[in-house]
Amino acid sequence: MKLLTLVGAFTLALAASASAQTLTIATVNNGDMVRMQGLSSAFTEETGIELNWVVLEENTLRQNVTTDIATNGGQYDVMTIGTYEAPIWAKQGWLAPLDALTADASYDVDDILPAIRSGLSLDGKLYAAPFYGESSFIMYRKDLMEKAGLTMPEAPTWEFIGEAARAMTDRTADINGICLRGKAGWGENMAFLTAMSNSFGARWFDENWKPQFNTPEWKNTLDTYLSLMADAGPAGASSNGFNENLTLFQQGKCGMWIDATVAASFVTNPTDSTVADKVGFALAPDNGLGKRGNWLWAWSLAIPASSQNAEAAEKFIDWATNKDYLATVAAAEGWANVPPGTRTSLYENADYQAAAPFAKMTLDSINSADPAKPTVKPVPYVGVQFVAIPEFAGMGTNVGQLFSAALAGQMSADDALAQAQDAVTRDMTRAGYIK
């Protein structure tokens, strides 16, 4: 009898194991996502749904999920995608709408910041739920700024940034005045450089979709960037993306870093950052033309239409992006470390405001970015640090490789711009945008 009971129990256990759902989740290796993975056992305990994590570097993630969804591969149940992909892929029918989520009053979709929600929607339907939202701003060492005899304005110009970066550089002490993205990729160096170019009055295309890399505005943008990095940037900068520059800043090797607002909690966390108590914040620079060099982005969770586990996937997205998750992170690691930039209620939370000195500037930066009017002159496209057309990912990566090569000293700025003009003109002609 005892043996039969044991056999029965074993059989039931096998059946339960066989019937347990498993979701495969593709995500980026940024700190907030790594933290989400670490906390996700609570979701499995609550639901019985197992999670298979595929955590990838940013460029690799983009390549993998794009290939999978475009070929209907069905490899993933949940994908981490951005503001660029969400409406384009939704229009292609590649994403499942998050109807159950938006219909759930407890999820409170109206609490999502309007600028973030709009970028993840198509025809009023939400196709990706924001895990964190961001703009970009300046993070700087207050002690090094003071040592240089300068005071950082709340809203500095590029001229001031150049002066300060060169003044703070101390090669003998391994301190670079400024760290900026140089790694090639439409979402790596081109996210930074496109946003920067907006403040110089540059644009990717004129109103007739003709590429504009042969203009004085782009020449001024790239020359300023390359000169700044040569005088005050780190060695090997053409290999540095978000994570590499984060490490440099946390190690005390950057006087300034212009990048995603989400980095603020990491550079001010004394567990990881050697300069946590010395960090100040300022708005992204401008040139007095009416546009700052800040972007608008959200890393978000979406369900590919090919997933066979859409209902379970939506449950996971609910868990990872609702208000309760923010409270879970706050309880585990403090309010300063919750994923920022998604919900109005977070910025109304007195505990968050007290713990996060960067909160107001993050919100101001997000709200000031205007995807419909990203630069000084009129453009036919939507997007601040990207152009919201399907062809942009390929073109942006190609141009990013040229500009990264210029940063590495492998070609001149003029050659990089000329080749970018030729390549993008060819691609846009082939795609039918120009004759």
Helix content: 40-55%
CATH homology superfamily of the largest domain? Periplasmic binding protein-like II
What does the radius of gyration come to? 23 Å
CATH class of the largest domain: Alpha Beta
Looking at the overall shape, the CATH architecture of the largest domain is: 3-Layer(aba) Sandwich
Q: Determine the N-to-C terminus distance.
A: 83 Å
Mean pLDDT: 94
Instruction: Tell how many strands the DSSP assignment holds.
Output: 10
Low-confidence stretches: 1-18
Tell me the count of domains. Answer: 2
CATH topology of the largest domain: D-Maltodextrin-Binding Protein, domain 2
Strand content: 5-15%
What is the spatial order of strands in the main beta sheet?
2-1-3-10-6
Counted by DSSP, the helix tally is 20
Query: Which structural class do the helices and strands define?
Result: alpha+beta
The largest sheet is: 5 strands, mixed
Globally, the shape reads globular
Order of helices and strands: HEHHEHEHHHEEEEHHHHHEHEEHHHHHHH
Fold and architecture overview:
Keywords: Periplasm, Signal. By secondary structure, this protein is α+β, with helices and mostly antiparallel strands. It folds into 2 domains: 193 residues, 3-Layer(aba) Sandwich (D-Maltodextrin-Binding Protein, domain 2), CATH 3.40.190.10; 220 residues, Periplasmic binding protein-like II (D-Maltodextrin-Binding Protein, domain 2). The protein is built from 20 helices and 10 strands. A 5-stranded mixed β-sheet has the order 2-1-3-10-6. α19 packs antiparallel against α20. The longest helix has 18 residues. The N terminus is likely disordered.
